[in-house]
Design a protein that fits this description.
Length: 305
């Protein structure tokens, strides 16, 4: 119980502490935090499902770039904005499907598979774009990343919808129940008659689709399709899940915990920027937090055993 409440307590303490930092509570800054964190949040929701099954996806940063590039290229060729966004989501889903298919059919560890597809997808993105960003994008596309509805950033509504969707899948569908079962004990799940390969492939495809959407939001914020976007984002997505109580051993994780973890990461980054701390130190801090969170999880499991 204490471990489950720890992320919430950390978020509250961090927020209260940052309230004493000049300009933190300004509307502009808080809006910026929400918009910046939304991309990692949406990616982390998909990563939550993957980690619950006992897997991991190191290619999400590359998938984000591929989805954003293909979606903006579709708009550059005259397709409507909605079609462009759909192209980005479908491209992400396809990449996720490939990850799931290779992991389950070839019986290769997901760490190795997604490490390989990270390079493949990133390379293909650069080949398709010739290393050049896409700039000819309809001005109205900026609404996805920068617009507001009822005074609230539109990306927050999108994040809320994605969170509800993933929560519903995990808590009220066979896919969700089977994901927890697979992550807890894949062999037992298989002998219990659960189609392990099918459901794991679905989970990776959903993770890819959410990452493709995050890629379109990132492209909207930058108003360009960057083939180099998303570098290092996989680390932040994994960190958000782990900080939120997800276990890299599988079988544990929640939407609320992941959202809290992602906002902790966002507040740390924003607070560091306001205090003038180097981005290089921020990367070191993220790595240290991952090790700390995993260590706490391991100690807890040893005590239970």
């Amino acid at each position: 119980m204490i471990q489950r409440l720890l992320p919430f307590a950390t978020l509250i303490v961090l927020f209260v502490t940052l309230c004493f930092v000049p300009n933190f509570l300004s509307e502009t800054n808080l809006s910026s935090v929400i918009r910046q964190t939304a991309v990692i949040n949406i990616m982390a929701l998909g990563m939550t499902m993957v980690i619950i099954t006992g897997g991991i996806d190191l290619s999400v940063g590359a998938i984000l770039a591929m989805g954003g590039l293909m979606g903006t290229m579709a708009m550059e060729k005259g397709q409507p904005i909605l079609v462009g966004v759909l192209v980005g989501i479908l491209m992400g889903a396809f990449c996720g499907f490939v990850n799931g298919y290779l992991t389950t059919r070839l019986k290769i560890n997901s760490f190795i598979v997604t490490l390989g597809t990270l390079g493949i997808i990133r390379g293909l993105t650069l080949v398709i774009s010739n290393g050049l960003p896409v700039h000819q994008i309809p001005p109205a596309f900026s609404f996805l990343g920068e617009g507001t509805v009822l005074g609230v950033p539109f990306v927050l509504w999108v994040l809320f919808a994605c969170g509800l969707l993933v929560h519903f899948i995990l808590e009220h569908t066979k896919l969700g129940r089977y994901s927890f079962a697979i992550g807890s004990n894949p062999d037992a799940a298989f002998y219990a008659g659960i189609p392990v390969s099918f459901h794991m492939t679905c989970v990776y495809a959903i993770c890819g689709a959410l990452t493709g959407l995050a890629g379109m939001i990132e492209a909207s914020r930058l108003m360009t399709g960057q083939p180099t976007a998303g570098q290092g984002y996989e680390l932040q997505a994994i960190a958000a899940v782990v900080i939120g109580g997800g276990s890299l051993r599988g079988g544990e994780g929640s939407v609320v915990g992941t959202l809290v973890g992602a906002f902790i990461m966002g507040l740390l980054s924003n607070g560091s920027d306001l205090k003038g701390i180097s981005p290089y130190w921020q990367q070191a801090i993220i790595g240290a937090i991952i090790i700390l969170a995993v260590s706490v999880d391991e100690l807890r499991k040893r005590r239970v055993v």
